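FORM 7B: Structural annotation worksheet

SECTION A. Query
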Amino acid sequence: MPIKIQNDLPAREILETENIFAVDENRALHQDIRSLQICILNLMPLKEDTELQLLRSMSNTPLQIDVSFMQMSSHHSTNTSPNHLNRFYNTFEELKDNTYDGLIITGAPVEQMAFEEVDYWDELCKVFEWSKTNVTSTFHICWGAQAGIYYHYGIDKKYLDKKRFGIYKHRVMNRKVPLVRGFDDVFCMPHSRHTETPADKIHACDDLVVLAESEIAGIFLCMNKSGSQIFAMGHAEYDRLTLDAEYKRDLSKGLPIEMPINYYPDNDPNNKPDLLWRSHANILYTNWLNYYVYQNTPYKWGQILDEEKRAIASNTLTQKI
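SECTION B. Predicted structure
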């Protein structure tokens, strides 16, 4: 997939070394192509790492995407340079009059706080509501998924006895839904969180469809019936060494942290972790972009489909599988 990003975004050079085609702004202006407009609300502290991970995850279809980055104006980020934020990010107020084919809302290290205690919660609620009318499909990740389900369905998170941390096996629960087309029956995904949205309450919600679940880690993937709101409880976008960095960071701070399960060969932190989830991560983002963004969004940017039309389109896709 050709990805259109700002010419001097730091992730660009790394993507090119991985043979991921990134189109510069000048070249994109001379192409008569309706690129998909994707906005990433990046709530993670190390924003440059997350930018690279998500751009890499979306690079495996022939569709061209034009990526914008959003930040919360009600939160002061201390882990990313102000220069980077000023050059590559816009606030919700600056972007709210736009419409987007797809929106990604990342996780955030605030899960041990009540939602309403998060300093940007009110602003985030505006984004959730805005996404209903200005975005074709929204992809929520980890805490972003918990927050989205809480806002849209009133299902609160609960605290775990200990951090859910490592690589977990999940089983596909509803193979006819296009979002999991091409998945193996059982697949691995990373989790790193202190809370979870109760599985029984998600199953009991009439508008939510569970697509993948683990006996140990709980629900990994669910969505509303129209495909306009998708929730991934883990981190498909993580790199090979992301959990390793989190583990060693917490150890260095003296925090209570157990070794991530099913991660290091022979449970030895000196061993290089096996990358067991990349192929399914690529399939997940490719399916989202194809079935729930590209095939549902109108050609003329700005004409977002209403829920009834989206439901019809989603059902039609399901019947074809």
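SECTION C. Observations
The first helix runs from residue 11 to 17. The CA atoms of residues 197 and 305 lie 29 Å apart.

SECTION D. Sign-off
Analyst initials: ____
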